[in-house]
């Protein structure tokens, strides 16, 4: 069974505190690290066809992709904690905003941006 989000954040904060890494974790640096980890995730898919991606994810690539996703999530959780942003609430708010921007009757089956619908 998965740990709760609260428990994961507490573990991350303890891990960071024990190593005295708070001094390095300014919002800018966490944001940079998040983007760098996202680029590492992207590398797992770079130059691969859809079929090659399926094969990659069915084999040794799945664990690497999972680790990159975890790295991204770690930095996202740390920056949202440090900035006092309730991540689940922010996500819920963004979904509500997107539901208004992209009503089903206009957005269904299209990749157009909300201002082009």
From TrEMBL:
InterPro entries: dCTP_Pyrophosphatase (IPR052555), DCTPP (IPR025984). GO terms for molecular function: nucleoside triphosphate diphosphatase activity. SUPFAM superfamilies: all-alpha NTP pyrophosphatases. GO terms for biological process: nucleoside triphosphate catabolic process. Pfam families: MazG-like. This is Nucleotide pyrophosphohydrolase. It comes from Candidatus Nitrobium versatile.
């Amino acid at each position: 069974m998965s740990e709760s989000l609260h428990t994961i954040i507490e573990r991350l904060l303890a891990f960071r505190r024990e190593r005295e890494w708070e001094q390095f974790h300014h919002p800018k640096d966490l944001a940079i690290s998040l983007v760098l980890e996202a680029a590492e995730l992207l590398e797992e898919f770079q130059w691969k066809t859809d079929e090659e991606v399926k094969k990659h994810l069915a084999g040794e690539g799945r664990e690497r992709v999972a680790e990159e996703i975890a790295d991204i999530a770690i930095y996202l959780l740390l920056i949202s904690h440090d900035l006092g942003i309730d991540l689940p609430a922010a996500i819920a708010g963004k979904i509500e905003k997107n539901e208004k921007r992209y009503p089903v009757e206009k957005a269904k089956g299209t990749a157009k941006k909300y201002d082009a619908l």
